[in-house]
TrEMBL record:
Protein name: 3-hydroxyisobutyryl-CoA hydrolase
Species: Arthrobacter hankyongi
Signal sequence, renumbered to the chain: none
Keyword Hydrolase annotated: yes
EC top class, as a word: hydrolase
NCBIfam families with a match to the protein in the record: PRK05617.1 (NF004127)
Reaction catalyzed: 3-hydroxy-2-methylpropanoyl-CoA + H2O = 3-hydroxy-2-methylpropanoate + CoA + H(+)
PANTHER family: 3-HYDROXYISOBUTYRYL-COA HYDROLASE, MITOCHONDRIAL, 3-HYDROXYISOBUTYRYL-COA HYDROLASE-RELATED
UniProt key word Hydrolase: yes
E.C. code: 3.1.2.4
Domain Enoyl-CoA hydratase/isomerase: 17-337
Length: 354
């Protein structure tokens, strides 16, 4: 791709407004410019009677979107974090806009759909996965906490499936994503171009029904609900780990091993965020909470260290501080959720205004 090419391509075939993420070499990782262009397109198309349906797709063969441009966020964090604060404010506003969009918003969740990519797709009204789909919220692996409304989505997944995915930074298949409530329909990846063409002139419900599989393949994750629900119902990360380590299922012990490699602080804040999100009444309230937590992560030590170890120096040896769960004080976790004063995102307040 030429560097002069737009990062987002906006097309208007027939009655379709098509948003194509156009950074294939970066698996369409989101930039602030992309977020603002998508938001502007949605605002314009809402009032355009010539647009009946919106479609989101990603260019290239690797996936819809690998999330935010984490290395750019890391560099900004080292410089003070002002650019990222503005980026997240617009990104979370976009997530809420997608969730409340009055026209069908169809997302092709083909290939990798991670972090911010989940925010662009899983809040939509028509979410389509394929046999190539891999959905994940990998934040705890880099000392961060699921955001973009991820704690809203995962906290409302059946049983403790969402807690498992968040605390292990695991990836879900297409059928898993449907079981989690992150997607609606399964369509073979080879059929997506034909479905996109059909959406140009047909109502989305008619076109999708014609291409969607009548029998969705079974979800491996849903088939493990017995040990997942039993283990992740614990009230603390320490208790969850004890249950996982004691459970006879090999997958439970594998999950414990995956968690041990993650930031102890990020694990505890993530569990607290998920439990709090269950009690909040709207996506906007959860996004406001996530904004507080994200800015605290940006200003802290764990996120920069996690990105350094995984993506910058790539030594895969993060030095978490503190290094063990028992040293992460309750007061430290609570501080992530404290109000921001004038810096509050305020989506819930804006939603409540007439």
């Amino acid at each position: 791709m030429d560097n002069s090419e737009p990062e987002v391509l906006l097309r208007r075939p027939g009655r379709l407004g098509h948003i194509l993420l156009n950074r294939p070499k970066a698996i369409n990782a989101l930039t602030h410019t992309m977020v603002k262009e998508i938001l502007a397109a949605l605002n314009g198309w809402e009032a355009d009677d010539g647009v009946a349906t919106v479609l989101l797709t990603g260019s290239g063969e690797r996936g819809l979107c690998a999330g935010g441009d984490v290395v750019a966020i890391y560099r900004d964090a080292l410089a003070g974090g002002g650019a990222t604060e503005a980026f997240w404010a617009d990104e979370y506003t976009l997530n809420a806009r997608i969730a409340g969009y009055p026209k069908p918003y169809v997302a092709f969740m083909d290939g990798l759909v991670l972090g911010g990519g989940v925010g662009l797709s899983a809040h939509g009204s028509v979410r389509i996965v394929t046999e190539r789909t891999r959905v994940g919220m990998p934040e705890v692996g880099i000392g961060f906490v699921p955001d973009i409304g991820g704690t809203w989505l995962l906290s409302r997944a059946p049983g403790e499936l969402g807690t498992h995915l968040a605390l292990t930074a695991g990836q879900a298949s297409g059928p898993d994503a449907i079981a989690l409530g992150l997607a609606d329909y399964f369509v073979a990846s080879g059929q997506l171009p034909a479905l996109a063409a059909a959406l140009e002139d047909e109502p989305s419900e008619v076109a999708v029904r014609r291409f969607a599989a009548a029998d969705v393949p079974p979800s491996p994750l849903a088939g493990q609900r017995d040990w997942i629900d039993a283990c992740y119902a614990g009230d603390s990360v320490e208790e969850i780990l004890r249950r996982l380590q004691a459970h006879p299922a090999p997958a439970a012990r594998e999950a414990a091993e995956a968690m041990r490699a993650k930031s102890p602080t990020a694990l505890k804040v993530t569990l607290a965020a998920l439990r709090r999100a269950r009690t909040l009444g709207s996506l906007e309230e959860v996004l406001d909470q996530e904004y507080r937590v994200s800015l605290r992560c940006l200003a802290g030590t764990e996120f920069p260290e996690g990105v350094r170890a995984q993506l910058v120096d790539k030594d895969r040896s993060p030095r978490w501080d503190p290094p063990v769960l028992e040293q992460v004080a309750t007061e430290r976790v609570e501080a992530f959720f404290a109000g921001l004063g004038r810096r509050e995102l305020g989506l819930a307040l804006a939603r409540s205004r007439p």
